[in-house]
Amino acid sequence: MLNKEKTMEALSRMYEMFPRAIGELHSDSPFQLLIAVILSAQATDVSVNKATPALFAAYPTPEALAQAPMDDIVAKIRTIGLYRNKAKNIKACAQMLLDNYGGIVPASREELVKLPGVGRKTANVVLGDAFGVPAIAVDTHVERVTKRLRICKLNASVTEVEATLMRKIPKELWVKSHHTLIFFGRYHCTARSPKCEICPLLDMCQDGKDRLKATRN
Ligand code: SF4
């Protein structure tokens, strides 16, 4: 397992590789970001970014989305995976924002996770990107990369991965590290073809060394 110091060494190398890592979902407000993140569950950011311009043009606010006809919401997001459930969730989410929060997205995890379609990961993305509240959202890329590098145990749950990262990374770097780990996983240490042979972290990655050995044998 990589200790705190080695974890920060690994992250420093990733920061150098991806100095401009940021959230890739398009939005113009905390509300739009919240909706985009709900839509991005088990879907790519690219597919969400293709659908949200029409959705947000028609329904830019909680008021508008809460009153939107369900058929039209479905039509606007049907290219995104799980669109029927997501359509229900974003409409209900908009309604709950109006009913309980005066139409304002709450800047607290405790309140965010009460909204339909919002789990801890979604709440953490919104906290970090919309409100600048330190948080680490563990998605498939963050989990894969941290396990390959043995920053976290291989059998760690998503909650344990998050807790381990929060322990090993200084709080002021949580949001930056979250985005950097996603970029590193999305564009370099990918699920199917990690670029181990040109990886600046190879010397500290047993997984990468084992992969290269296996391909050479
Ligand atoms: Fe990922 Fe390979 Fe780099 Fe390890 S060496 S971090 S598995 S790309």
TrEMBL record:
Signal peptide segment: none
Function: DNA repair enzyme that has both DNA N-glycosylase activity and AP-lyase activity. The DNA N-glycosylase activity releases various damaged pyrimidines from DNA by cleaving the N-glycosidic bond, leaving an AP (apurinic/apyrimidinic) site. The AP-lyase activity cleaves the phosphodiester bond 3' to the AP site by a beta-elimination, leaving a 3'-terminal unsaturated sugar and a product with a terminal 5'-phosphate.
Name listed for the protein in its UniProt record: Endonuclease III
Organism domain of life: Bacteria
EC code(s) of this entry: 4.2.99.18
InterPro entries per UniProt: DNA_glycosylase, Endonuclease-III-like_CS2, Endonuclease3_FeS-loop_motif, Endouclease-III_FeS-bd_BS, HhH-GPD_domain, HhH_base_excis_C, HhH_motif, Nth
Cofactor note: Binds 1 [4Fe-4S] cluster.
Xref: Gene3D superfamilies: Helix-hairpin-Helix base-excision DNA repair enzymes (C-terminal), Hypothetical protein, domain 2
